[in-house]
Amino acid sequence: MSLICVGSAVIVSFLSFHAVLLYVAPLLFAVLYRRRSTIWFVYGVNTVTMLVSSLISFFYGICDLNLLLESQHVRSWYLDIITENGLHIPFNENPVFIILVFEVFPRSVILLVFAVMLQYSVVSSNEDAYRIAQLTCLKETDMGTKVFNKNKYVEMSEEYYPKMERIGVLFWDLNNLKCINDVYGHAAGDKAIETLSAILLAHSGDDCRIYRIGGDEFLMILDNPQENEPERIIQTVHRELEAENRDKRVQISGAVGYASGKGRDIAEVVKAADARMYENKKQSREGRRG
Question: Could you give all domains of the chain from N- to C-terminal order, each with its CATH number?
Answer without folding.
Answer: 2-140 (no CATH), 150-289 (3.30.70.270)
